[in-house]
């Protein structure tokens, strides 16, 4: 089954949005496979966002992601990568639809409260990057037959 890496960024933690954001993924019907509060070291932030290294905003992005604790999550489900990106909304919160996390809860690209993997391959890569072995749980959710026929 598909996996995605979702991260509540430091602004989401500081603004008290952790419960609200986790709740949206839970209510949709996805399964939580990993969860921790974590102060991200600079090297990990740089590795995570290495595709954006050449962008002018890269140093600011690294400062932002390392500016306070983040909430790291693994979520599992059919189509979870694309669906989570829809729940999160557009990168620039001013362009994000109402009803999405960024559309409802954020204003600026540089403070867009949450990250979501952009492909199933990156979902795997990012979960392996942010979690150690033993930090993830494989478990059977009793609601599954009520979510999928
Ligand atoms: P993530 O889920 O965090 O990866 O966001 P995304 O996939 O919607 O956007 P992308 O991967 O292109 O950029 C990663 C992050 O870099 C964004 O979520 C923003 O936090 C930040 N970022 C992207 N573009 C800009 C920009 O033009 N200015 C600033 N300040 N930050 C940006
Ligand atoms: Mg991205």
TrEMBL record:
<dbReference type="GO" id="GO:0006228">
    <property type="term" value="P:UTP biosynthetic process"/>
</dbReference>
<dbReference type="GO" id="GO:0006241">
    <property type="term" value="P:CTP biosynthetic process"/>
</dbReference>
<dbReference type="GO" id="GO:0006183">
    <property type="term" value="P:GTP biosynthetic process"/>
</dbReference>
<feature type="binding site">
    <location>
        <position position="9"/>
    </location>
    <ligand>
        <name>ATP</name>
    </ligand>
</feature>
<feature type="binding site">
    <location>
        <position position="102"/>
    </location>
    <ligand>
        <name>ATP</name>
    </ligand>
</feature>
<feature type="binding site">
    <location>
        <position position="85"/>
    </location>
    <ligand>
        <name>ATP</name>
    </ligand>
</feature>
<dbReference type="GO" id="GO:0005524">
    <property type="term" value="F:ATP binding"/>
</dbReference>
<feature type="active site" description="Pros-phosphohistidine intermediate">
    <location>
        <position position="115"/>
    </location>
</feature>
<feature type="domain" description="Nucleoside diphosphate kinase-like">
    <location>
        <begin position="1"/>
        <end position="138"/>
    </location>
</feature>
<keyword id="KW-0067">ATP-binding</keyword>
<keyword id="KW-0418">Kinase</keyword>
<feature type="binding site">
    <location>
        <position position="112"/>
    </location>
    <ligand>
        <name>ATP</name>
    </ligand>
</feature>
<comment type="function">
    <text>Major role in the synthesis of nucleoside triphosphates other than ATP. The ATP gamma phosphate is transferred to the NDP beta phosphate via a ping-pong mechanism, using a phosphorylated active-site intermediate.</text>
</comment>
<keyword id="KW-0808">Transferase</keyword>
<dbReference type="GO" id="GO:0004550">
    <property type="term" value="F:nucleoside diphosphate kinase activity"/>
</dbReference>
<keyword id="KW-0547">Nucleotide-binding</keyword>
<feature type="binding site">
    <location>
        <position position="57"/>
    </location>
    <ligand>
        <name>ATP</name>
    </ligand>
</feature>
<feature type="binding site">
    <location>
        <position position="91"/>
    </location>
    <ligand>
        <name>ATP</name>
    </ligand>
</feature>
<dbReference type="GO" id="GO:0042542">
    <property type="term" value="P:response to hydrogen peroxide"/>
</dbReference>
<protein>
    <recommendedName>
        <fullName>Nucleoside diphosphate kinase</fullName>
        <ecNumber>2.7.4.6</ecNumber>
    </recommendedName>
</protein>
<comment type="similarity">
    <text>Belongs to the NDK family.</text>
</comment>
